Amino acid sequence: MEVYNENEYVISVSFRVDFRTDYSSILKQIVSFCLKKDLLLIDEELKVVPLDFEIINKCFENRKRIWQR
User: Fold this and answer.
1) How far apart are CA 13 and CA 3, in angstroms?
2) pLDDT digits (tens, 9 = 90+) for 52-62
């Protein structure tokens, strides 16, 4: 996880998912945190991702299959 800040304010956070591990727990925590703090998740194409664990997890599962080929 990388955290970027300016003047002691977080302006951006990025993270990578290790598909070899069970990432669902951390993903649920990230979604929950974003919902509580009214934050957005943005994908690699800079599109806003719905703050819904099932939707995000499905996207991750699709990417996981691509990387396992």
Assistant:
1) 4
2) 999 888 887 87
Whole-model pTM: value is: 0.70
Q: Which two tokens stand for residue 31?
A: 């979604």
- DSSP notation for 1-64: -EEEEETTEEEEEE----TTS--HHHHHHHHHHHHHHT--EE-TTSPEEPS-HHHHHHHHHHHH
Among residues 59, 60, 15, 12, the alpha carbon closest in space to that of 39 is found at 12
Nearest CA among 34, 29, 23 for reference residue 57: 23
List pLDDT tens digits, range 9-48. Answer: 888 888 887 778 888 888 899 899 999 989 998 888 889 9
Residue corresponding to tokens 């997890």: 57
d(C-alpha 11, C-alpha 25), whole Å = 24
